[in-house]
């Protein structure tokens, strides 16, 4: 622990609706099963403001150091660490799971989860998050990153690697419906942070993408962005007109559709995009729902076409490990063709949260850089 300071700065939320403030805290010790990580970049959600101001009514116990997933370096490790040694570049994952309880799952510093196990862990054990210079992290949430391959060979820096925060989510959904190379998937909407990343992930898997959205300018940006980064990308776009049947016909004009990925925010729950896409699916088609659904999608077409519907919160650990292999294999665009990260220091959290709400869509993420 010799080069670790005795204290560190952290961004604290005293209660839902409060202004955040920077606090000087004593450095925690790494014990068995835990790692002290020096945070390099911590991702900010487009709705981080809405969670911390109470607009999104997520159950979250305060006071709390805010946070989300992060990229960092191991500063100190518990005695049971074998490869997570000081200096190792790591992905700090925000999906915390009970070690003895598969039902206990929550998103660190975002919500406490919805059961007694997750609430206990979130409130009493792994509470304070990554909007800080250092964080104490469950060992299993520190995923080693191959720095030589990712940073030297492929040219990624922590500022690009923080985009894993967006890329991993749609990967989790697409894994639940087993999207395969050569298949066609509708991503709807496709112009958000997570959904735009979903287009990049589906293309990296080798699928053809039909991207739906209501904003033609942003659809055009999406298409040109992914085509620039991966010129072999097989992507079509369909504008959501609000005429459900017409939009289904537009989708079907591109041929057989195997799968649908939905990442709708609450504001889009009543949009027609998901029912349109479901109605365009072939027999045996699969739907991954990761966002808000306010429209009926289980109707006659669903029954008569043997469709399969899967919900998904985030992703499994196995998905995370596989995804990092895909990234290390060089399946994604490099540098600014993958993402352009806007970075803010901890003290500028308000600007960061406001920027995150605006700076959305494919290849865009906001990060707090302690
Ligand atoms: N299941 C999970 O584990 C998981 C994980 C992360 C996030 N999520 C969910 O994913 C959602 C999307 O997050 P995000 O960061 O991608 O959001 P975002 O960047 O704010 O994007 C919002 C998207 O929704 C579209 N939209 C907004 N209002 C709409 C409306 N009334 N009708 C049609 N489309 C509308 C936007 O289209 P325009 O470009 O036209 O504005 C944009 O494509 C979140 O709200 C969250 O609930 C789920």
TrEMBL record:
Its cofactor is Zn(2+). CDD domains: MDR. InterPro entries: ADH-like_N, GroES-like_sf, NAD(P)-bd_dom_sf. GO terms for molecular function: metal ion binding; oxidoreductase activity. Keywords: Metal-binding, Oxidoreductase, Zinc. Residues 31-146 form the Alcohol dehydrogenase-like N-terminal domain. Coiled coil: none annotated. It comes from the Eukaryota. Pfam families: ADH_N. Belongs to the zinc-containing alcohol dehydrogenase family. This is Alcohol dehydrogenase-like N-terminal domain-containing protein.
């Amino acid at each position: 622990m010799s080069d670790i300071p005795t204290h560190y700065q952290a961004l604290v939320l005293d209660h839902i609706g409060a202004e955040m403030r920077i606090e000087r805290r004593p450095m925690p010790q790494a014990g068995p099963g835990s790692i002290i990580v020096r945070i390099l970049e911590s991702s900010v959600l487009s709705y981080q403001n809405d969670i911390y101001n109470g607009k999104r009514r997520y159950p979250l116990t305060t006071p709390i150091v805010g946070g989300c997933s992060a990229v960092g370096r191991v500063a100190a490790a518990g005695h049971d660490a074998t490869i997570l040694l000081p200096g190792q570049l790591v992905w700090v994952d925000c999906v915390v799971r009970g070690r003895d309880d598969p039902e206990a799952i929550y998103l660190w510093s975002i919500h406490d989860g919805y059961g007694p196990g997750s609430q206990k862990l979130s409130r009493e054990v792994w509470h304070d998050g990554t909007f800080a210079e250092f964080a104490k992290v469950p060992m299993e949430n520190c995923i080693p990153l191959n720095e030589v391959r990712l940073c030297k060979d492929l040219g990624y820096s922590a500022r690009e690697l923080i985009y894993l925060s967006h890329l991993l989510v749609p990967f989790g959904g697409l894994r639940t419906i087993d999207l395969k190379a050569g298949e066609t998937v509708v991503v709807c909407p496709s112009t958000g942070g997570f959904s735009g990343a979903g287009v990049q992930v589906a293309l990296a898997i080798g699928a053809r993408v039909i991207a739906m959205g209501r904003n033609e300018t942003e659809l055009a940006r999406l298409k040109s962005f992914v085509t620039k980064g991966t010129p072999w990308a097989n992507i079509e776009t369909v504008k959501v007109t609000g005429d459900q049947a017409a939009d289904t016909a537009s989708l079907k004009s591109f041929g057989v559709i195997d799968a649908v990925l939905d990442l709708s925010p609450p504001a889009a729950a009543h949009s027609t995009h998901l029912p349109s896409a479901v109605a365009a699916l072939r027999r045996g088609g699969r739907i991954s729902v990761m966002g808000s659904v306010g429209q009926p999608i289980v109707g006659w077409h669903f029954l008569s076409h043997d469709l399969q519907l899967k919900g998904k919160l985030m992703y499994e650990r196995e998905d995370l490990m596989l995804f990092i292999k895909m990234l290390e294999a060089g399946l994604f665009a490099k540098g600014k063709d993958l993402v352009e990260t806007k970075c803010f220091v901890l003290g500028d959290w308000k600007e960061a949260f406001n920027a995150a709400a605006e700076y959305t869509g494919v290849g865009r993420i906001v990060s707090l850089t302690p």
